[in-house]
Protein 1
Amino acid sequence: MPETVSLTIDGLQVRVPAGTPVATAILSSGRTSFRRSVRGEPRGPLCGMGICYECRVTVNGQAHLRSCQIPCQDGMDVQTDG
Amino acid sequence: MDKIRHECDVLVVGGGPAGLTAACSAAQARVRVTIIDDNPHVGGQIWRREQRKQSAPEAVEWVKKVQDAEVELINGATVFDYPEPGVLRAEASEGVYELSYHQLIIATGARERFLPFPGWTLPNVMGAGGLQALVKSGLSISGKKVVVAGSGPLLLAVAAYLREQGADLRLIAEQAPRRRLVPFGLALYRHPRKVLQLITLEKQLLGVRYLTSCWPIAAEGDEKLRSVTLRQGSKTRKLACDYLACGFHLVANTELAALLDCELREGTVHVGDFQETSVANVYCAGEATGIGGLELSVVEGQIAGYAATRQNEKAQALFGSRSKLRRFALMMDCAFQLRDELKDLPQPETIVCRCEDVTLEKLQTQTGWNSARMLTRCGMGPCQGRICGSAVEFLFHWTPKSVRPPIFPVRLESLASMSGASEGHREFFVEGDL
């Protein structure tokens, strides 16, 4: 068994293998909308490699972070805006 | 925010195939080499580490070589500023790096080209490489209905990978016509390794429909994707799916090179025989110099690494294989050229700039990039035009704007590290906000 970490996504506790990007953890938890666009449309990851900024979320209170580039860590608090 | 000073002889920006091989070659000269990369791990996109299985043997080998050569790795750090020659600044969670170097090798790779069509902003419409990256990092695709569409050899590689991971692959739609792909297929036979790759792909994709001259015209859904409508000739078909993996070949990441004032030609970094750019002590290798594939990146990386450390003979020994691979790259460019019909995909109300929700009709009344930026905010969001830029260039032939720091959005604390910046820099603070 790989090592796992536990974090909360919109208040819901999830456990994922260590090293999983936050974006993957969010999608795996069943969410597809990560944020709302300027017009209020749902948006989710597009490029998967840190270029498009569509997957940005709030991690431990810090807003606008690219969830595809941040590995999950124990006790992390992730808030989507979807 | 902590300022972290770092000094090296050769700084390599980008830890993909070109960056890793450049670092290894440079390290043979017994100089201090550092790789800085935006991702949590080196490998870049094609050698991205996988959650469930071993990475490609070649990738493992190069990463080991880099470690054995005592190349320093800085991961999760985004280069955003070039305050003076010989210095770059990068933002990481641990602070702002100030990196001093004598020689710089730019190996920033490529990104997918995205073209706007109705519904392309829906969640679960992703890049082909984008979906692959997420699945490699642990997203389960087993039993999910997937349509792969767009253009380029990446579509096949992604489709084969997703199928291996259990995806229910409904269709691969390639916009290029068969008559262009046939000569490309024949050219492959001069490259035994590529033939092997193709045969493997064919086996993996046995029974999957691969349609040429076919492309998506709309994605449907409300909160997320439900189906995609594709066109081939006069026929249209609607397919239910969970994911649409869609990218129209690749475009070079040239922002850092442009910031350093390196000469660009046709959207790629222009280099000489030794991979040297137009700026002294700055080299460039891999996809940023033109889309050429993995093998070319590996050869160019080695040449750049040798050249940057005056190991010119070793560099010259690789010129022959580079020429051969570049000829192949030209064939690829020609085969996967975008057809003009794709310009008709976006409707007046279709969003082109996803960051600022700028629609096609708002752009149609503009005269160029500058007026579009000022009057519609197109390209002014956090991606700084990296996504809409190549689409706008294709749709309107507008030449891209000049590049100013920060070339990636950064935290206010990191901006403060630029406090010695000129007026020009300061002006950007206002524009570059999230």
Protein 2
Amino acid sequence: MNELVEKDVILEVNNLRTSFYTDEGEVKAVNGISFSIKEGSTLGIVGESGSGKSITSLSILQLFAGTTGKIIDGEILFKGENLLEKTHKEMMKLRGNSISMIFQEPMTSLNPTMTCGEQIAETIRTHQKLSKTETKLKAIEMLRLVGIPEPEKRIKLFPYQLSGGMRQRVMIAIALSCNPDLLIADEPTTALDVTIQAQILELIKNLQKELGTSLIMITHDLGVIAEMCDFVAVMYCGKIIEYTDIRTLFNSPKHPYTVGLLNSVPSHEMDSDEDLKIISGTVPSPYDLPTGCLFSPRCPHAKAVCHESMPELRVHEDGGLVSCFIYEHDKWQEER
Amino acid sequence: MLVFIIRRILQTIPVLIGVTFVVFIMLHLMPGDPAVVIGGEAASPETLAQIREDLGLNDSVPVQYFRFLSGALRGDLGMSMRNRDRAVVDEIFDARFAITVQLAVVSTAFSVLLGLVIGIVSATRKYSIADTGLMLFALLGLSMPNFWLGILMMNFFAVTLRILPTSGWGTWQQMIMPVVMLGVTGTAVIARMTRASLLDVLNQDYIRTAYSKGLAERKVIFKHALRNALIPVITVVGLQFGGLLAGAILTETVFAINGLGRLIVQSIANRDFPMAQGAILVVATLFVLVNMIVDITYKIVNRRIDLN
């Protein structure tokens, strides 16, 4: 575990709580999570839709304009400074400059009425004092960096004239144009074809190495996690239920939910007529969360204690963190 | 694109022919004998017969229609019946046309400016007191009959306060009330449209992207959101402008402005058939042409953002 909190930590999130307010009441989208990222490393956040992983990423940049989302507790320490205490202006200086973000939908994440070049140049102009020509050259340079052929011509194109993969490359160019210290990629490949997915992941990986950027990779795809990450946080209903390094996660997953997720991935050894293993039940409604462990209604091992109280995230003997009573031997044995 | 423009222009031809037909039939179904209008109540049957013969009223209806149509194509809409030395075309284009177009243009500018401001303020302060107040105001503007608004304004500003002239057209003081009366509906429509469209755009992914780049809210709204939100508004503005030309009838009547609208009303009241026919035809043609221009503009603007 010491590995996770060593120095050179670029981002540290402590007990973050983010809620949305709807007509039906408060939705605790992120419910007290903590994690940290070392400089240059990659943290994966994995979970089903609605687990709060995207909201976690939006919380870091406080991108809640036009929504009812609000961070109600916790701290987000970026290079030791709490982002939640920053003013609007200070946050604006950080966004796209020190911390930037790539979104899930390349089809809709670019402004349809602006050329790609202008959308890249805009970020450069906002954060750096460059002349017009320098800005343009930098935009072209960024397009070249993300592997777009003939960037001098492509900067004049509108998003609708580019394919999904190309648009995602433009998004990456925008995000990296000011050499951010931290890049947050929110399901960057989910909307793309499988072959393009591999290319984009490869691109992000290479650029990360080249520029020394730290990366948060948000995904529901364990394949992406295996490919990209050093550490993984598994989220369920707004909480982190397992947090460990990549090897431990795949070699010996601890939490029954993580085990279920890994089992539900189809493998080559399976017979074609064999059913995929699924996790029974569905993600509970955010308005009606179960008491006790949030996973208890779907957990094959659940005992009475699981329905009564919430297990804490504890250090496991192999160094990872897990929140499950199975690993709290005293409570688990008592039950029997 | 060129094909679209050509096809759109060609499409207006049958519409315009249809317009001439409807205008012609409408005037023919109107009660009243043009011969009596010209000759007067006391004219003898022989005189009336002579006048009918002169005007070609004894010809069959199709013959009369084609005479009207071919005249219209040559830019000849006949002579006024009230003032038989005055050509309809001269009366319309020398005296009336410019006033109505001015009124419509100024009213549209007023609607667009005020409508956009209200829409943007409302959308960016969704559900605030300002938003609720402005939308209530827009609803009022939309539901209030505008001739009544015109009369109320006239009573207040011209009669009670005596700060604006009651009628006429020319000075800027004379323009204020007619422009407000004619523009208020458009203002309300544009305000509501801008608000809805902007709220929709503000929820789009690319707005979040814009914020994630570190742009200030002002820049996100004016540079990223508004540009996209205005596309549906353009259509509304175009339709409003076309509608204003027709709406000018009421405004011109209330404020005694000698434009095309008032000409239509006066010539119908006077049973001046060629004049009414000509004026209606010009207004209808303008409406068709404005719509055509709006369609083409929209297509050109929209082409760039077509997502598929």
